[in-house]
Records
---
Amino acid sequence: MRAGLRFLKGHGTENDFVLLPDLDGQLDLSPELVRRVCDRRAGLGADGVLRVVPSRLAPEAARDADEAPFFMDYRNADGSAAEMCGNGIRVYARYLVAAGLCPPGHLRLATRGGIKEVDLEDGPGPVSVDMGPAAVGDPVDIDGVAATFVDMGNPHAVVPVGSVSALGQLRPARTDLNVEYVEDLGPTAIAMRVHERGVGETRSCGTGACAAVVATSLRIGAPRDTAFDVAVPGGKLVVTWRADGHVVLCGPAVLLAEGVLDASWLGA
Amino acid sequence: MRAGLRFLKGHGTENDFVLLPDLDGQLDLSPELVRRVCDRRAGLGADGVLRVVPSRLAPEAARDADEAPFFMDYRNADGSAAEMCGNGIRVYARYLVAAGLCPPGHLRLATRGGIKEVDLEDGPGPVSVDMGPAAVGDPVDIDGVAATFVDMGNPHAVVPVGSVSALGQLRPARTDLNVEYVEDLGPTAIAMRVHERGVGETRSCGTGACAAVVATSLRIGAPRDTAFDVAVPGGKLVVTWRADGHVVLCGPAVLLAEGVLDASWLGA
C-alpha cells in the first residue's frame, strides 16, 4: 500500500463517520470520493464524511474564522453537502481535542448551519452541543395520531407510543419529514425510534432526539432546563430544552481507528 | 488515540474483510472482539476477519507449517470460525505479497479447510484460488424448479432464470442451502445473484460462483477447462471447472486502507 489520504473512523450513538483531516485545505472532496469512502462494502463505510479544515481555508467559513477556527465540512454518504449533524459535530470536536488542535472546554465550530457551541473535556466523556432553538408548529397527522411538529432546522413529527419495541418495522404514512416514536420510561426518560426522511430507520438521530424531548416536555408539562435521558437503538443521549429556547444534545463521541487510504485505490 | 491493534481493510467483489496481522501469534481473537470489529456502525465493519498468522504459531495449522507457512484464521462477522472463504483468501494472499511476507507467484496457504493453492502476481491484478473439487448431487426443488445441487464444501442449489435483474427480492423456498440464480449472458458468461444460507442476498459468494459455473457447464454441455465470466452484484469473477475436477476461482482482491484500532476502544 502507498499512503494516500489520512482518515479516522468514529461514531456517536452508532451514527458513524469517516473524518478526513485536511489542515492545509488541499483536499478536493468530490461527491464521487465521498460515495466511495462511505460505501460499506467497497470502501470504509460510514453515514457521512467530516472534513476537518481550518475555517480560513474554507470559502464557506472564512468569514467565521476569527470566532470559529475550524469548519466542519459535512457530507452525506450520497456525496451531498449538509448543514449540520448533531452526532457528527460531537465526533468532530472529540477529534480536534484528541489531536491537540483545540484545547478542551468550550469550542465554537463553524458549520454550513452557522457557528455551533460545543463543550467537552479531555478524555472519553460526553460531548454536548447547542443545537439551536426549537420551533413548534401545528400538529400533523401520522398514522391517525396528532403528532407534535418540531422544526430543529429540519422537520420532525413526534408520536407518543406505549412501547417502541412493540412497533415492529417502522412504516410512517408521512416520509417527507422525520418521524420519532417516543415511549415514556419515567418522568425524565424516554425511549425513541426514528424514521429519517430519505433514509429509513436509523440507530440514532441528533435532531430527532431534540425534537422528541421538546414534544415530550410540552405533552407532560416538564419545566425547561430538565435533562432528559433519551435511549436510542445506538446508545444513550441526554437532551435539555433550555429556558432560552435552545436545545442541548449531549452524548458519547468515539474515535475507534485511524489510518491511511491507499493511494492507488484513491486514484482508481 | 493510543495505537492498539494494526488492521487493513480489503474486499473481493465487495465481500469485505478486516485483516489483522498477527505475526507473533500473540493476538487473542475472541468472538466478542470479532463482532465489535465487524460491526458496521460501532466498529470498522466487515463480512469477516482474516487473522494473518504464521502456521507454526497456530495450533490449527502447525502440522502444515513446512508446506504452507501462513494460516488464514477466518472468522465470520458473528465471531464463529470458518473453514474457508474464496473471496477472503484472495484478499489474504494479496496482503501477504503486498507486505513482502511471501513472494508473488504460487502460494500454498493453510486454512481450516486444508491447504489451498493460490496464484497471483505482484500489483493489482487478479488472484486465483483452487477451490477444490465439486460434487454434483441429485436435483433439489427450489420454487418448483429442479435446481442443480453442487457441494463445494458447502451446499448449493443453482437455478437457471431468464433474467437475474427481473427477480426482485430473493426469497427462495429453501434457506438451508445457498441458492444461486443464474442467467446466461453468452456461451461462456453468466450473471448470478446469490441468497446465502443464514445471511440473505449478498454482493458476491466465491463458492456460489463456482457452483453456478459447474451447474451451467453441465446444463449447456460446456467442456471442462472453459473459463466462465461470472457477473455478480459486487463485480466480476472468472471461474474454471478444470479437467481434474477442481474449480478455480479468479478475481480482484483490493486492499484499500490500513491503520490502527484505538487501544482504549479495544479495551472497553
---
Amino acid sequence: MKDKIYVLGGAQTDFERNWSKEGKGVIALLREVIDDGLKNINLDYYDIIKLNNQGRVACFVGNFIGEYYINQGHLGALLTEVHPAFYGVPSARYEAACASGSVALDAAMTKIRANDYDLVLVIGWELMKTVDSKLCGDYLGRAALYDEEAAGIDYPFPNLFGRLADETIKKYQLEEERYLQNLAKVSTKNYKNAKKNPNAQTKKWFMNEEQASLRGTVTNSLIGGKLGISDCSQVTDGAAFVALASEKLINEYYGRDNFPIVKGWGHRVAPMRFDTKMQDSAGSKYLLPWTRQAVVDAYNKANMTIHDIDFFETHDCFTSSEYAAISAFGITEPGSEYDAIESGLTDSNGDKPINPSGGLIGCGHPVGATGVRMFLDLYKQVTGKAVGYQLNKADNGMMLNIGGSATTNYVFIVGNE
Amino acid sequence: MKDKIYVLGGAQTDFERNWSKEGKGVIALLREVIDDGLKNINLDYYDIIKLNNQGRVACFVGNFIGEYYINQGHLGALLTEVHPAFYGVPSARYEAACASGSVALDAAMTKIRANDYDLVLVIGWELMKTVDSKLCGDYLGRAALYDEEAAGIDYPFPNLFGRLADETIKKYQLEEERYLQNLAKVSTKNYKNAKKNPNAQTKKWFMNEEQASLRGTVTNSLIGGKLGISDCSQVTDGAAFVALASEKLINEYYGRDNFPIVKGWGHRVAPMRFDTKMQDSAGSKYLLPWTRQAVVDAYNKANMTIHDIDFFETHDCFTSSEYAAISAFGITEPGSEYDAIESGLTDSNGDKPINPSGGLIGCGHPVGATGVRMFLDLYKQVTGKAVGYQLNKADNGMMLNIGGSATTNYVFIVGNE
C-alpha cells in the first residue's frame, strides 16, 4: 500500500479481570486502557488537546453490543466521560459483531491515508460479565440472524460453530475422531500459549490434551454439537487500545521512523445465515471462501504471500474456526489442515505459529476488543515487546478477525519495513 | 478538498409508512430502498456483482439501535439477506446515535478518497414502530449517558432538549414568550414544508402557528420542559440510500462528470453529558461551540463561507435544536437567531432556507436514516430533483446531523462544481 500507516503501539487490560466484581464500570475500563496506551506511546492528554486544536486527532471505538451489556449506546461520545481532553475530538463507534474492533481499525487507518488526521486512537472494548452466561449467549445471538438462528436457542454460537465442525468433517471426509483430536490440540496449544501471556484470561486455568478430548464429561460438557467447553472461548471483560499515525506525526513527535507499518488488509462479508454460507461455498474448495478471499486481498495489497508471514493471530472463538483459518491463511491446502496441527507447525516454536498470545480461547474474547487486541499483538511481536510470549522470528504478522459465523472477515498484515 | 467524491444519487422510503402495520420487516425495508436507489443511479445488482469481483464496491450502514427495535446487530452483514449480490461485498455498521448515518457517510467517502473503492453505498435506516413510544423513548435514552440522564425518565430526550431551550433563554436573556413563539414558527415552517415533500411523515398532518403555540393543551401536551409535542420530531420508520463514486467510476459508467460533489465536512464531539456540555460552553458566545466548530471545519475544508450556502438541512429533532443551529451555521450571531426566524429568512422562499424537506419534525426522524436522508436532500436540491419542494436557488447546501444532546456533530457541504 502506498500510503504509510505507522503503528505507534498501545495497551491491553488484563483479560482475567472481572470489572463488575471489582465494582468498576466502563469509564474505569476505558480510562485505564487509554492511560496505559498513551504512556506506552509517550503521549499524554495535553498532546491530545494540542492535536485536537489543530484538528489532527480522532478516536474510533469498536464495540459490539454495549447497548445490552451496560445499557449504553453512542459509544464514541462516551470517551468524553473518560477525560476532558476528548471534548471536541471526533469520535464514533464501529460495529460488525465480534469484528467490530477491525471495523474501527479500518476506518481509522483510512483516515490517516486520506490525510484527514495525523493521529488516530482505536479503542475496542466489551464488558460482558455484567450478565450471566446464558443471557450473554442470547445477546451475542444478535450477531447471527437472530430470529432464524438464535431466538430461543440457549447458546446460539456454540451451536453454529459446532455445525462448522460438522461441515468440515463432511466436506473433507475427515475421520471424526482424528478431527476432534485436532481440535483438542488447538485448544491445548492456545491454553498453553496463554500461560505465558501476562494479560491472558486463562493464565491460571488448567487444560491439557486429555482434558480437551474428554468432551461430554462433567468438567468438559458439550456446548454445541460435538464441541465441548474446551473448544470454546469464554465470556470476558476487557479493552484494547492501538494508536496509528501518519508519517508527518512520527517525524514531528518521535524523530524516527522505525515503527511497524500496516502492509495489507482485507474485508469480505459472507452470507449472514450459516445455511446460506454453506450453500454459497458448495462449489469452492474452501469451506469459507470469503474468509479466504479477505486473506488473499490482504496478501495482494501487501504484495506478499504465505512465505512472508512469520506468525498469525486468528479468531479462535471456537477451535473449529482456527482449524478452518489454517487453509484460509494458505498454511495448508483446504482439507489438509490437520497436517499443520499434527506436525506442530502452528505451535509457538513451529514455523507458522498461530495465536502465540493464546488467542480468543486462551487470552480471552471481550468481543468488541478482540480485533484491536489481535492487532496490538501483531505490533508487540514485530517489535519484540511480547514479553513472556515473544516469538523468535516475527517480522511480519497476519491477523484474522471474524464476526458472526465467519460472516464478517477482516484481515490485517503488520510488519517491519 | 482535493480528492473528489461524486454524489450519484439515491432513494428514500416514504416516512409516513408504518412497516410493522404493513407486516413487513427490515429486509423488505432495505430491499425497497436499495432497489429504488440503484434504479435512480442507473445501476443494477449485476453491476454490484461485477464491481465486487473487482474489489471496487463496499457498503456502509448507519443505524443507531436495531439491537433493541428488531433484536438484530451485525447490521452491515444483514445486507446479504437483502440480495445475493452482496455476498462478499465489504460492509459494516456505523454508530453515533442519531448521527449514525453521517458516520457511515464519512467512512464511505473517506474510502473513495483513499482509492480503496470506486463505488460506496450508504444505507441509513431505523425501524422504530416495533414498540410503543414510551419504550421507544427509553431505547433512545442510550444516546445520552443512560444511567445519569435517561434511566427511569419517561422521555429523556424531550427533557434534554427542553433544557436546551431553558439554557438558550438564560444565556441570551431572551423573553420567554417571544422565544417560544419563535419555536412555534420553526415547527409550523417544517410542517408546512413537509406538505410539499411526497416522502414526508407528516404530509397529511395538521399544524399551524396557533396550534404550535398552544402548548400544554390536550392536542399539544407538554413533553419536555417548556416544549410541546409540536416542538418534537416523531417516531418514524424509514430508510435512505446514497451512492458515492470516484472519478474513475463516473467516467467509466456515466461518461459525464456533472454530478454534485462533497465540498466539505466537519465532525466534532461535545461532552456527552448535558450538564458538562453547558459548563464547557460557559465561556463561549455559542451555546453549542462544538456544533459551531464542526460547521467552521466544513467551511474551511470547502473554502466557503455562509454566503456560499444556498440552503440547509438541519437536525430539528426539537425546535430548540434548529434554533441553535441558526447561529451555528453563521446565519445570525449567537443570541440573534430570532431575527432569521421572524424575518422569514429561513423559510423556503427566504434567502437561507432551513429544512425545505420538512426536516425531522416534518419529514420524519428514523434515527439511523436521518443523516443519509439529509445528505440525499442536499443532492436532490442541487440537482433540481426535489420534486414538490425544489428551491429556486440551490447550488450549494449544508447539512447538520447531531447525535445525543448535540453531542456528536456532523456537517457536510454538497454542491455543484
---
Amino acid sequence: MTRTLSGDLEAAARIGALDDGGISRFAWTPELREVTQWVAQELERLGLDVETDAAGNLIGRWPAPAGKAVMAASHLDTVPHGGRFDGVLGVLGAIEAVRILRRADFEPVRPIWIAAFMDEEGSRFGTALFGSRAFCGQDVSASLDARDADGITMREAMAAQGFDGDRVGEAARVDEVGAYVELHIEQGPVLDARSERVGLVEAICGVLGYRVALDGEANHAGTTPSEMRHDALVGASRVVLALRERAAARPELSATVGRIRALPGGTNVIPGRCEFTVDLRAATAGSFEAEQVWFERMVAEVCAEEGLTSTVDCDYAVPPTPMAPEVTAAIEAAALGEGITPLRMVSGAGHDAMNVGLYAPAGMLFVPSRAGVSHSPDEWTAVEDCELGARVLADALRRLALRTDI
Amino acid sequence: MTRTLSGDLEAAARIGALDDGGISRFAWTPELREVTQWVAQELERLGLDVETDAAGNLIGRWPAPAGKAVMAASHLDTVPHGGRFDGVLGVLGAIEAVRILRRADFEPVRPIWIAAFMDEEGSRFGTALFGSRAFCGQDVSASLDARDADGITMREAMAAQGFDGDRVGEAARVDEVGAYVELHIEQGPVLDARSERVGLVEAICGVLGYRVALDGEANHAGTTPSEMRHDALVGASRVVLALRERAAARPELSATVGRIRALPGGTNVIPGRCEFTVDLRAATAGSFEAEQVWFERMVAEVCAEEGLTSTVDCDYAVPPTPMAPEVTAAIEAAALGEGITPLRMVSGAGHDAMNVGLYAPAGMLFVPSRAGVSHSPDEWTAVEDCELGARVLADALRRLALRTDI
C-alpha cells in the first residue's frame, strides 16, 4: 500500500491520543518512544541509515559522495493536549519529501539527513529545545537535572530508556550540517487570514522575558485624593498601553503582558504594588537591543511620573536567529516552482531552527494554521497545505543537495 | 484622679492589644465586651443612665426636659490589627465632651445620648454597621446568620453573651434622635498634608462596587500580530486609566481598581479574559447616578474599540449620605469658637453616621490622621488634635442641646 503524508499524520496522531482529541507525547515517555520508533521504521523503509543519537534525536541518513549534509528536521513531542501538526508535520513532511525525491530517482550530491529532535516543547521537564541544543553542542547538563511533576530527573527518565545522560555530548554533530530546512505550521493567523499558502521565514524572533514589579503606596480607596495617590496598577496600565502602542507601530515587534497581580488586592485598597510579566519579541539583532533599552527607559519614565519605583528582572533574553539567504532562496525557488509566491514573514514562536541556525545556514517554511490556533486539539492545517509544504520542502532539499558551494 | 481623654485612649488601647502594637476587638468577643463594659462604667461615673440595647449598642443618657436627643456616637470594635483611634475616639471624645459640659455646669434643654455602636467594622462576620443599622430600624436579620471564620453565626455569638437575635428589632430608636454628631479620625491624608486640624464633613460618599470581566481572544504572544489581537488586559488598562482621568478631574469622585487578574495567565499568552474590581465613590446623589451611567458607557466604548465583550456586575451601590446643614453649622460654630476654620470635605470612608444620617440630621467632624494611615498599628492622631476634637464636639453638643427647633 502506498504511504501518504495524510495517512502518516493520521497514524502519528493515534500515538498519545487523548479523549479530547488532543495529543500528549512528552520527552522520554513511552508515547514519544512509540512514535519515534514508528518514524524510524518509515525512515528505514525508505532506505535511510537510521540511528538514535545520545540525546535521543532520531536521524536518518541518505548517503552521498561529498560535502556536508542537507538536513530537514523538526520534532515529534507535543505540549499537553497538543495538536497533530506542530512538529510532526516537519518530520513526516521530510519523509514525504524523501519519497518524492526517491520517486524521481534523485541522486543527491550531498547527504540528506531527516531528523526528529528530542523534546522541543519542554513540556515535561521545562527543558525546551533539548535535542537541538545537544545536536548543536550546547551544554545541556543543567537540563539533565531538571525534574518532572513526579520528581523524576531527566537523567533518570533517559536511563529508564537506556540512555546515559553523561554521554549527551556525543550528539554534537551540527558541524556536519551544510544547510537546514524546517517545515512547520505557522501557529499564527497571518497566512490563514490572508489566504496565503506558504510562509517564508526570514528570522526567528528573539524573546525577552521580563518580570516587573512597580511599587507605590497602598492606601484607602475612599479617603486618598487622586493627586495624592501612587497607584502601582495605574503605572502598570500605562506600561501595558505603551507596549501595545510600540508594537502596533513596528510589525516585526510583539509585546504581551500575560500575567498581572495587584497587591494587597483588596477591592477598596489602592494597589501599593503591581507585578506583571512582559514578553517582548523582536526579529533583528538591532531591534532586539534597541527594544531592551527602550523598554527599561519607558518603565522608568512612567514610574517617575507616577511616583513609583520599579524592579525589572530579565528572566531570559534569547537573541533573534536570522535565516540564511541561501537556504531561504532555495525554499523560495521551490515554492515558485509550485506556482506560489511565499509570504515573507518572521517567526514569533521558537523552533529547533533557532538553535541550528546559530551554527549552520538554516531556513524555515510555514503552512497555514486554521484561525492561527496551535497547542490545542483544534490545531488544524488542510491536507493540501501539508502536501504543498512537503513538495516545497522536497524541491528545496533537491536544490540544496545538488550544490557543492555551501 | 482626674480622668483625661489621653488617659482613656491609653486605657482602651490595652484591651485587645496585640504584640505588634495593633488592636483586635471584634463583634461579640470578650475583648469588645471588656472595652464596652469599661466605657459603660465611665458613662455611669458621669451620671448618665446607661443601657445596652438589644443589638449590643451601649447608650448613656443625660436626661433633659424636652425634645428629641442630641446624640454623639461612634464604635469600639476594630479591624484586625487595627489602630487606637478609629471609632474609639468618637466614643471617648464624647465622654470627654460630657465632662467638659459637666464642668461648665451645663444644663441641656434636650437629652444628650452618648453611644458606642456594635460592629461598625464587620471584621468578624462581614456585617459592617450592624449596630447602627439595627438602631435605625433596618432589617439586620441576614446579618444574624452570617458566620465567622470558625463557622459560628452571629446569632450564636450573641447568645453566648446573653443577647437574643430575635429581639434586635427592639434596638430601633433613631426616631428619638433629633441630631447626631460623630467625631472620627479622617483616615485619609488631607488634613495632615494641609496642616489643617478639623475637617467638617459635608457628605459621606456613596460607594459603587463593580466586578468587571472583559473577554477577548487568548492567542500566542509570538505569532499574533498587533492588529489581530483582542487583548483583554489592554482593554482593562484603558479602563483603569479612564477611571483615573475621570477622578482626577472631579475632586468629589474617587475611583480605584484594587484587584485584577489576566487569564489564562501564561507569560507568552495574550490575555483572553481580564477580571477586575472597581470601587467608585461619589459625594452627591447627582454624581452618584451620573458616574454609574458614565462608567458603564465608558467600558462599553473601550470594548467596542478593542473588539472585546464585557460583563459588568454591580455588587453594591450604597448612595451618598448628605450631612444636615443645621448639625454642620453647629460643628462649624464650635470650631470657630476654638479659633479654627474647619476644612469642608467629604468622607470617602463609611461611618455609622451614614446610617443615622438617613433618618436624623447628622454631622461629622474629622481630626487629622498622621500620613493618612488607618486600619494599622501605625494609625496616629496627636493628643492635642484629639482634645481639640472633643472640645469642638462638646460645644456642638451644647449648641444643639439648647435648641428646641430641630
